[in-house]
Amino acid sequence: MRQISFDLDVLRTFTTGIDLGSFAKAADRLGRSTSAVSAQLKKLEKQAGAPIFRKAGRGLALTEAGQTLLGYARRLLELNDETASAVRGVELEGEVRLGLQEDFGEALLSSVLGRFMRAHPKVRIEVCVARSSDLRERVTMGRIDLALLWECNAPTLNGERVADLPLCWIGPVHNGAEWNLQAEEPGLAAAGAPVSLVLLDAPCLLRDLASNALDAAGIPWRHAFTSASLSALWAASAAGLGLTVRTPIGMPASLRILDPQEAGLPRLPAIGLSLYRAQTIAGPAVNRLEELLLQAVQEAVQRVAMG
Known about the structure:
This protein has 307 residues and is of the alpha/beta class. Helix content is 43%, strand content 22%. It has a five-stranded mixed beta sheet with strand order 4-3-5-12-6, with helices on both faces. A three-stranded antiparallel beta sheet has the order 10-7-11. It has a two-stranded antiparallel sheet with strand order 1-2. α1 packs across α3 and α1 packs across α4. The longest helix is centred in the N-terminal third of the chain and has 25 residues, at 64-88. It is globular, with a radius of gyration of 22 Å.
């Protein structure tokens, strides 16, 4: 059987188009014409030996083969880019100070830092896990180089919106029980009783969004548990103390996303994820870590979009 060697440039076009949600945008990003991109995708489908796209309304969606190919394409490109960085940047040195929300500690840190340190072992990385307000202050004062944080408003100077993610009501997975305002089962919210909330200590943007949504819907609520630690919130909600509000990123398997309509809860708005830089012109180590961080964010957002 003839071995197939996938073209990495074609795979990069494929993954970029999926990440951006448009192959026209991918053509602009990669400096190619739309006809060239179309030809690349036809070549890719021929190499795959199976359809990788299907019609979905006015657009296209991935087939099962396309989903499989996307996963392998990301791995191949990741190894290729890591190899190129290691060869070209073997002497990269210095320090990078990174600030993250706790949501991204497990979801991004291990993969991003692992790839970076394998390619650039001489660079020292310092990570600060904190709230959005603290991270914004630190990056403004130049105490960290990069900060990834939640915000509702448009980014300010040296900030860039990199994604918009859905906020969700999140509750425990146990015995198939459903959180519902009309439920009569023990431990669940009875009709007219306040909704128990498990939230971070104030000030907290997501805390405000949740309480404002309930107030606007005329639904009573109470703080059943507060903490400065996100892992403590996950544990409290999983134990049935109440509902919490986060994005799906980093959510443990002991919790699940609730359907607002079925649970009798108001729909929540999306929240912006922005990347802030301490300096407009950064060093090569900061630029490389930023590149890997943005790639990891795009992949995480894509996983959320695919459910």
